[in-house]
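User: Is it possible to get a 3D structure for a protein together with its bound compound? The compound here is 2-hydroxyethylsulfonic acid. I've pasted both below.
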Amino acid sequence: MKTALITGATSGIGMETTRKLSNDFRLIICGRRQERLDELKSELSKNTEVFTLNFDVRDKIAVFNAIENLPENFRRIDVLLNNAGNAHGLAPFQDADLEDLEAMIDGNVKGIIYTTKAVLPLMIPNGSGHIINISSIAGKQVYANGTTYCASKWAVEALSKGMRLDLLPLGIKVTNVAPGAVDTEFSLVRFKGDEHRSQQVYSGFQPLSAKNIAETIYFAIMQPDHVQLADITILPKAQADGTSIHRN
Ligand code: NDP
Ligand code: 8X3
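Assistant: Yes, that's possible. Here is the predicted structure of the complex:
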């Protein structure tokens, strides 16, 4: 059985994709909330072997320690889902909290760099592999008050394109997935626990669900070896681009 490593498995897109993969892959599930990792592990252990890794993707040493010390039966990684990430705040650049901006660059960009650099030595010897990076519609189009979140996702787009070029001779595929509005804990985190503000983001239209994205990722992963889905943008029917949402 092949092995998949999923970052941000404790919530939203990462959790649903982990569930979707659990009939086909041995799983390494990552996040900071250990109790959620443990719950997911006990839920899925009837389907497959599950190993939990607790680290903050911003912490370079923690990322490398965790992945370098994986047990022997999890040391061949076939699929890496770089999903961990969040937005922090929604404010004009001049007013935005500097720590929020750092958290987005460190989590959404450096997190992918650290995790991928740590995983590649466990993927390259196989002569095959698949990396899926979760970008966003915010990686295609900049919107007001989201400057640094958008910058982080434009960087994910560049990382996906560049990795696809550099990993070409190594037989490793790279898929970039750019969703529009998905109803997860994303807005709750962006608005620092403000449930009312978070719910407003998804009001008056039907947003995507984490399951919709999980099924898309699964579709990309299950393609024949010679087929590489390079770039997938997925929007709710009611959304046309980063800022155009038709609400009732
Ligand atoms: P959630 O908030 O529901 O999930 C985010 C996940 O990322 C959690 O499992 C969280 O785990 C993990 N995570 C966040 N920061 C860190 C960190 N520093 N270290 C380790 N893990 C971290 O949001 P989504 O499922 O929506 O987000 C998943 C990805 O999808 C993100 O990259 C997001 O930018 C992207 N996205 C989301 C969209 C949306 O509308 N929801 C649209 C487009 C893209 P824990 O807190 O346990 O560490
Ligand atoms: C999350 C989608 O448009 O709120 O990446 O930035 S958006």
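Strands lie at 2-6, 25-31, 50-54, 79-82, 129-134, 172-179, 182-183, 208-209, 231-234. Residues 136-138, 146, 149, 181, 242 surround 2-hydroxyethylsulfonic acid (ligand 2) (CB under 6 Å).
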